[in-house]
Amino acid sequence: MAIASAVATPSFDRSDPRAVRRAVRTGAHAGHTAGLAPGYVQGNVCILPRDFADDFFVYCQRNPRPCPLLGATDPGDPRLPALAEDFDIRTDVPRYRVFRDGEFVEDVTDIRHLWRDDLVAFVLGCSFSFEEALMEAGLPLRYVEQGKNVPMFLTNIDTAPAGRFHGKMVVSMRPFTPAGAIRAVQITTRFPTVHGAPVHIGKPELIGIEDINRPWVGDPTEVREDELPVFWACGVTPQSVVRNARPPLCITHTPGHMVVTDVKNASLAVL
Amino acid sequence: MAIASAVATPSFDRSDPRAVRRAVRTGAHAGHTAGLAPGYVQGNVCILPRDFADDFFVYCQRNPRPCPLLGATDPGDPRLPALAEDFDIRTDVPRYRVFRDGEFVEDVTDIRHLWRDDLVAFVLGCSFSFEEALMEAGLPLRYVEQGKNVPMFLTNIDTAPAGRFHGKMVVSMRPFTPAGAIRAVQITTRFPTVHGAPVHIGKPELIGIEDINRPWVGDPTEVREDELPVFWACGVTPQSVVRNARPPLCITHTPGHMVVTDVKNASLAVL
């Protein structure tokens, strides 16, 4: 077991975004990206055929909280130099989720065999960027401390439809003391391109969450008596609406397995 | 009754801060100042003998959330031209509250007979300034709509002591929907000199408030099922700590009966 574990996590410079991408590209790293390349923007991924991509562009524009668009490739071009010079969307995500006709098919670690001339890749901002700012401000993130994935919930909040894309918003939840929640609103407001301020606070039942201890994806996180659950729009929302749009092919990242860019988190702060 | 009412509220330009002060000064207006001179800063007042004023300066510096200092007079000088050229602290507050040895004595509408050469008057920022910004952003203030005074509560939150001044923080409470509460944090953060962001949200019992329907001063305001109570540090806090400091004389405004200045609310916004 010790040997298998060592083989699964070979050595690479976990602080350097280029080294992380290289490790992902070569298959040396296929796990979560939480804590990797600290200080650098990580992104949600959604890849669609050009026909659906046109609708998705509009969907992102109308739903900037769950879908803050950091960049999109040209059709068939796997590069996105604005986010990283060496970037290749076909190999640089640790784990991909493949959907056909809106249904989940499989998770894979490479999509070169699935790439087509008509595919457009979208990279959306991710809460890892603002979480760094929260931790720097001294606010604890329980799920990070416990080495778990953030809990995510499907809400009853309608997103603004665009063409064939429509559906409910997915949110991530982090518990804070009331004073911590106020500070978290202030800090995340500074980062509109990575989901920005929370969309809800304190009353999960009002947004259709029946059991705060049973997330839709991710791991459960305790909300203590002296804490409020705080909810942010989540970049996993496309994985919910793609079920309604039913494109023949859609490839996303697997939750928590983000693409690592060369863009600095601090460069996204608006204030 | 109709005639008495007409006599009690004679005509003056309620939109002009100078006209409001003149009406207060001449005894034509001795009521609440909510809604008067919209757009202009209103202030909490605390007047102390010089000996205690030195401690109070430090107290304000250490407690900027409840005691954001907008200005202080020179000892014995009732003027404060930085806030209004014609300002006279002895006559320009609609209703004063007189404390002797920390105990409430009486409410009066003029303190010329109490003025002394060693008195220093402090003017502290008031939530009326940020409430205007909240209403402009479309957030409803129930107590304003109902023509009532904001509910204020004595909490278990210790203020930072300075000399003889020490005690618990007083807070004001406004109910908002969760999304409204998040917006209210953003808006009031822009106004640090008028209490700034909330100090608490959602769980009154954690700050020592036993019954949200029974304020310490002000009127009760309903908090509905789909709302959170949001709490801001309140400029009535000095009226609480003065009970502990027990100065031989202290004169404050009566809650809700503020001094109206010529400073624009918008000039206080930091962002």
Would you mind describing this structure in some detail?
The structure is a homodimer of 271-residue chains. The first copy, chain A, has 271 residues and is α+β, with helices and mostly antiparallel strands. Chain A has two domains: 2-125 and 244-262, 3-Layer(aba) Sandwich (PSTPO5379-like), CATH 3.40.1640; 128-237, 2-Layer Sandwich (PSTPO5379-like fold). Helix content of chain A is 23%, strand content 24%. In chain A, strands 1, 2, 3, 4, 5, 10 and 11 form a seven-stranded antiparallel β-sheet that branches. In chain A, strands 6-7-9-8 form a four-stranded antiparallel β-sheet. The termini of chain A are far apart. The model of chain A is unreliable at 1-7 (pLDDT under 50). The A-B interface holds A 178-179, 181-182, 185-186, 189, 197-203, 206, 226, 228, 271 and B 178-179, 181-182, 185-186, 189, 197-203, 206, 226, 228, 271.
Properties at a glance:
7-stranded antiparallel β-sheet; 7 helices; 271 residues; alpha+beta; 2 domains; homodimer; PSTPO5379-like; disordered N terminus; 4-stranded antiparallel β-sheet; PSTPO5379-like fold
CATH class of the largest domain in chain A: Alpha Beta
Alpha-carbon Rg of chain A, integer = 18 Å
Largest sheet of chain A: 7 strands, antiparallel
Percent strand of chain A: 15-25%
Short synopsis of the structure:
2 copies of one chain form a homodimer. Chain A has 271 residues and is an alpha+beta fold. Chain A is 23% helix and 24% strand.
